Amino acid sequence: MMYHRALLVYNRSAGQQETLQQLAAVIPILAEGIKELVLFQTSAPGEGEAVCREQGEAYELILVMGGDGSLHECVNGIAALEQPPLIGILPVGTCNDFARSMNLPVELTSAARALMKGQVRALDIGMAHDRVFTNFFGVGLITATSENINPDLKGALGRLSYFISMLQTVRSAEPFSYRMEYDGHSSEGEAIMIYISNGRYLGTRPLPFTFDSLTDGLLDVLIIREAGLPLLKELLSRKIEGEWKPANESISYVRAASIKLITDGPMKADTDGEIYMETPAAVSVKPRYLRFLTGSE
Predict the structure, then answer these.
(1) pTM score, whole prediction
(2) Which residues are catalytic?
């Protein structure tokens, strides 16, 4: 498939030389399927969202070269458009969990080749307050893990830094009181984490959700009541595709389209790895709202 006009949004947080090498690797591949490719380099938070919102409708395709945070920013710009373009991910982040959820290769040039094959899927998008998310919205342990990642380790160890932070954080995880209303049901009690997922991966590891979770019009909700390594093993070990019933009694799993989450005080929320929202929160799903270029099923 040939695209007449595409925008590639990227930043150089990893360093200018590395970014130039990444662009040099993917542009020849993209040029085979794109007549006009416009590059936009971001240098400050919010620029990716702004350019996608202000210029997005002028392009057939927007490519985001970055990680889950860069994608989160750009998708919030694209979702505001009346006629949103196709979205493609060129993964260069630490985890690239949403790219993994779509079965995209996480090696950069392999991802570029997969995108140019032109497999399009309309995917669900989550919404919290007036913001959208691709992968997840969470409070408790997930937020503390993100806050506790050592920036030096993140640069040196990549995805391993996420698991180091989670192992360190889980030992000191404090429970909080919550009430959750979802699709006519309710749940309340104490938890150490509530994780509302649209995607299928967390910290590069597959969660026990089926591939159609990206198109079923529902969010996968995990309520984790107790900390411990058995909990991590239960969550982050690959399961057979199909309906999942947690073996660990400390985990509750429900699926819902609309969720209202109230905690006993305002709590920071992690959204696609970005921490800028708080509870109480209204979280919902926008079924098959945006079109993505994906990997093979």
Answers:
(1) 0.90
(2) 274
